[in-house]
Design goal:
The structure holds 3 protein chains of 3 kinds. Chain A has 7 helices and 17 strands. By secondary structure, chain A is of the alpha+beta class. In chain A, strand 8 and strand 9 form a beta hairpin. Helix content of chain C is 28%, strand content 31%. In chain C, helix 2 packs parallel to helix 3. Chain C is elongated, with a radius of gyration of 20 Å. Chain C starts with 8 loop residues before the first helix and ends in a 7-residue tail after the last helix. Classes of the chains: A alpha+beta, B alpha+beta, C alpha+beta.
Amino acid sequence: MFSVKTILPTSTQSFSDDILSTHRRHQAELDAMDLDEDEFGAGPSKRNIVTPGEVITSSKEYMRGHGTYVEDVNVVSSVTGTIERVNKLISVKAIRSKYVPEVGDLVIGRIVEVGPQRWRVEANGRQDAVLMLSSVNLPGGVQRRKIESDALKMREFLAEGDLLVAEVQAFFGDGAMSLHTRSLKYGKLRNGQLLSVPPQLIRRLKSHFHHIPPPCGPTGVDVILGLNGYVWVSNGTSQEKREGGEGFDSEGVYSDKNDDIPPEGRQATSTITNLIKILADEGIPLTDTLIEESFNWINQNQLPLGSIAHNDAERMLAEIVGIDITA
Amino acid sequence: MSSSRIEILNDGGLRHDARRPYELRSTSFQLNTHPTAEGSSTVTQGLTTVQVSIFGPREPRQRSQASHDKAIINVEVGVVPWAQGGGGIKRVRGDKRLQEIGASIRQTFEPVIMTHLYPRSEITINVQVLSADGGILPTSINATTLALISSGISILDYITSISIGLYLKQPLLDLSFLEEQDLPNLIISCLTNSNKITLAQMETRLHIDRFEEMLNLGLEACKVLKIEMELIVKEQTEKIVERMNVKSIISSNASGMNIDE
Amino acid sequence: MVREVDPPSIQKDFLLAALAEGKRLDGRIPLEQRKIEFIFGDELGNVECRIGKTAVLAQVSASIVKPRDDRPYEGFLMINSEIGPMASSIYENGRSSDSEVLITRLLEKSIRRTEAIDREALCILAGEKVWQLRLTLHFLSDSGNLLDCASMASMIALKHFRKPDVEVIGDEVIIHSPEERAPVPLAIHHTPLCLTFAYFENLPPILDPTHLESTLCAGTLTVTMNAQREICVLSKAGGTPLSAEDIMGVVRVGVDQVREMVKIMDQALEKDRESRVIEVQ
């Protein structure tokens, strides 16, 4: 009764690979019907992928998890993604989604508002996060008591626009996350640049602070992979300085001034930034080993630092990750 | 009614652009066409192209607007100045027609987006009409569905939309601008699984007996569109899933430490 | 737009419980309209329409203007409608909210685009002089279902209105005052009237929702029909998804309802005509 014309729209040549012929439709219908109850979570097969409105299974036998809803007697997907099953719990993991925070997550955020006893932090979540004055370390030592004058000086510590790295401490009743920076690892960020990547590319790892050692710049490059998709790439510092050991400048924690960074350090930072961008653009999950390997690859091939040419990027992806983006 | 300048349906049963009455225009669906939006899509139906980008759920720009138990949905509709080509109505920002299209899109998607999952936040749907040749609203709705899917926001089902015209006693599907001008014109959008209509709009006089026929025809056309969309979505998803699994090849650190659940 | 305070949830529960038993808070059955009342003003074309406590005043006036170059035989019908804070505190002066845009657009579509008024009959002298009708709507009070009330007020005002008789001698146009010659009624093709239905989840639709009902409902459907069994405008945006049969169901209900409404309107007009002296002795 119907047919869909499959002629290329004249004005949109680039859409060519998205045009479909009608006969493939039947394949999709068959696949949908073949979804067997025994097959959830069975490898990266095509049947694992569902789109909104697709019936996954009966709600009598399974419980619904995230990304699903129950209609009549069926568990139905509400997002596009892969089915995941833990015993009787069926959930669908969306392939793309806004960052969903969990307690203990490491995030990078930006101060958007200084309020009474608290900062509001934009952290790529569905609501702004809150950083209470009581959950930060102030200059003068960990044990220092907060006095009234600190509340008046809040903007001196962190002002609107400042970037910081923090940990998710808890959630408020309305779902907003509460952050804390009560560790010497956390706090204000400087000496580097911010990158934003899709949050699902950053997995929960043992550590999110990575140090790429020289020859990547004179002092190496530090990378902080925030789980909210914000990545901080900065000029490297030594282990001790980072974690409050020898030479840790407790007064400089809230400093707004960048250190003197030699040109080589800046170049290394931007090289790492560009590498992360290339990997993220292709949807490859980021890990410290991957970033380090890609830098080594650049180094071994003696390519110029800084920006990376497109064909070099292609070659790198093919050799390191094993994917072909030319197709 | 008005005298038609074009022949709507010729003796051979073809329309002015050589389509048969029930034939849809060539369609193309593209996902993730906007670099920074959470979700985006570009949909082309014939010579009508619409790009939709979705921002959010995020902190509401006006905090007073926030609702404590659900997300609020904002829709902005814009038409680029060059969209109209030869014939068309000048549409500027803030125009009542555009406002109406925006309200229709918002009301269509409000019951479908699971807003209760995103309390105190806002979802902004930006609709940009890049070229217009009839059926702006149906194409915008189709594009919004795809953009929502690509954003990972929970929705109940695909919503597809189509316009249906009537020439004498012959219903026509997916009207072009010229046909839209001359024919009674019904726009419906529906949830394809349950076959239920979320939006129905008609602006011209029509006898009720014909109306039912057009309604049912539109529902079937919506299903066809859904199948096409689903194909694209699945294809794209497979690609992304494949990339996401690349990690197991190279990283020793990452494997085994995946504690998302 | 000012956000209205949500009604108390206990009121919502009560309303829904009553509806589930097929009862409404004001004692109507689900598909019953509130009482329609027309108050005719002193002038022709000035009518106030009331449905329950919702009131809209419509005023028609006519002036002579030059027609558009591309349509020399057609007169104009302009609809002015702006909902001010008088109707309800949720409306603001000068700024148009979404609901306001929908009301005015739907009115425009149902009256203007369906050609309810024969615009060619408004022509006096082709290319030179045509009548321009101005329909101004004043929204006096919003107690739900402004749209239906406004569409009824508009149509009855247009039917009530009479334009002065004109005489064309060569290029000269003489306008006769109502004292000289009886003014003539407008040529009206059909009477499109809006009917608004409200939906609640898993409940049958109700006709003519009150303010409370429309704030609590899951969606509305407005259908504009005439007595000739024609659908002029149908607008259902959002709300509970409906099947095709559901939609056809309300359309069928609408057919009879509109006939009934047209009858009421005609009776009211007839009654007014008896009390009014229009003809010149």
